[in-house]
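Hey, I'm writing a tutorial for new members on how sequence and structure tokens pair up, and I'd like a real worked example in the thread rather than a made-up one. If someone can provide the structure for the chain below, I'll link this post from the tutorial.
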Amino acid sequence: MGVSASFPIQDLPQQWRSAPRRWGHPLHSLCSYFAMFPPQLAHFFVDWLTQPGEAVYDPFSGRGTVPLEAVLQGRRGYGSDANPLAVTLSRAKTKVPSKRTLLKRLAEIEASFSRNTVSINDEPENIAMLYSDHTLKQLVWLKDQLDRTNDTDCFWIATILGMLHGNHNKTGPSGFSISMPNTFAMAPRYVAKYIREHGLVRPEVNVFDMLKARLERLDLPTAKRAGGKSWTHDATEAPPPWLIRQRPKLVFTSPPYLQVIKYGQYNWVRLWFLGETSTEVDKRLMASASLSRYLEFMRSVSANLKHVVAEDGYVCFVIGDVRRGEEDLNLAQAVWDEVLHDQNWHLHGIIADEIPQDRKVSRIWKHNSGRATKVDRLLLLSPTPRDLPDVVPPSWTQQLSFLTTRS
């Protein structure tokens, strides 16, 4: 039975916070990503504010959480980003090949691999220090053979990106590298120093075998599931005409926070595999300590979304508080007061979502962890005034799975 639309909007976080922590399709964990919000959050809003067959869009798609949840719930999932890493991960989750197709493609690449014909002499020292010679040769071969414009290859690339580095445990390495955090990579000099001081040994692993084992845990469809699209796009630039024609019913997104993360810098290993550099990627992304510059950035983004979202649709921005000196800045409130109010959006509310401290990736930064947000705030808007639909509490007892029919 649904909850009345008069349900207190500030109580909404209990809807997704009541879900099991590990809830979600295995594909959500294909590759970790900084500042990723939980799939429970995206699931709730897709389920609440859209109907099957409608479109959902995330202009800062990150690891593809929103498009994947949309696809899993029978919606069309669209995701764009200026970061090539994010686009690759999102594409892998909106155009999911069958397990059979993936294994066939990997077998082709493995059969053509010969360690004697692959040279790693020109690979950067920062990369060579992470992998054994044989493992690096396998990675270089895969890097050369895979084409991210191909759906099957893109999925394999995304899978590899999620395993390029990881912690070691009692059962062995979870990734291909020396023991490292999975979510991000520390600066190369720091990693080199850590390797020397702790005597880390590059593990001798078989990349092909580890990829096959990883595939077994992903709950893939029996036929290709193409339920959406991902593309490279700067959200401050005009949206593509085809997207405007689609008029997504829901835009759900988390824009970059104010000077918290440099996505290129912390993903330099993954960007190497994509043939990109962290410096060039960070040049394309919003990262500023200036509040006025951030508000101008959001002004462009929200103005563009006015042309995208359906007239009877909704936009939800997830914006975290930011530490400024000794105080926390309520950035979501500033965006509403200085930007969105003047653009005549209808505000349903600004919802505070407290982040449990033990779930913050930044906790491992120790004395630097204070610069990360403690509260996410959800700015829930619509282009024109309208009532919110009734809240129907989701059932968290069942995991979503892909439809087996070809779309």
